[in-house]
Amino acid sequence: MNVSYMAHVSGKVQGVYFRASSQQVAIDHGLSGYARNLADGDVEVLMCGEEREVDKMLEWLTHGPPQAEVAKMQKKKVQWQEHHFFAIS
Fold first, then answer.
1. Is 37 an active-site residue?
2. Which of 29, 54, 67, 73 could bridge to 16 as Cys pair (CB 3.0-4.6 Å)?
């Protein structure tokens, strides 16, 4: 079943290749959506795809790439969104 989730990741998540790493993980899991920096220093990630693969990415977001220090990751299931790739903005 296809699902869409929005994640809000807090901590040391900007300037540590978090978005680029998120993009690679999403591609590896066949997901679409986006990762973008927020003005408050957090990162927002939208993931769309097979539920099992989204769950794997949500787990990865709890720690992120080696340089990151994730303090908190909040997730919310959102209405399905059709995206054709995973973008960084």
1. yes
2. 67
CATH number at residue 63: 3.30.70.100
Is residue 9 included in any domain, yes or no? yes
Q: Which of 2, 19, 36, 52 is catalytic?
A: 19
Confidence (pTM): 0.96
19 is catalytic: yes
As for how many domains the chain has, the answer is 1
Residue 15 within any structural domain of the chain: yes
Structural domain for 22, as ranges? 2-81
- pLDDT band at residue 68 under the 50/70/90 scheme: very high
Q: What is the pLDDT of residue 55?
A: 98
